[in-house]
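[job 0417] fold request received: PLIN3 protein
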Amino acid sequence: VNQVANLTLVSSACDIVSTAYASTKESHPCIRSVCDAAEKGVKSVTEATASCVQPVLTTLESHVAAVSEYASKGLDKLGEKLPLLQKPVDQILSDTKELVSSGVADAKDAVSS
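[job 0417] inference complete; emitting structure tokens
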């Protein structure tokens, strides 16, 4: 999970969503109260679940470690094959706009000639 969260694409997307969430929550009092209630609910459920799941995780620790190592290797390979994962969302959007604009300009030139 940490390795996925540290991917530039994922972390920049999380930052964008977090900023939008905070901004929306601050500018709309009704939404703020709903969000506050939801956050408290999620926190309570997380705390309750963590205490119940911990004994199971301790028992399965060696299996979890093996799966984690396998997933880590898979993510490394995925990162090699998809360099896009190492770019922030803003750069991907900018590159995509540039590519589309270039394609449209090329098509326009072809039609004109």
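[job 0417] notes: The chain has five helices and no strands. The chain has a mean pLDDT of 91.
[job 0417] exit 0
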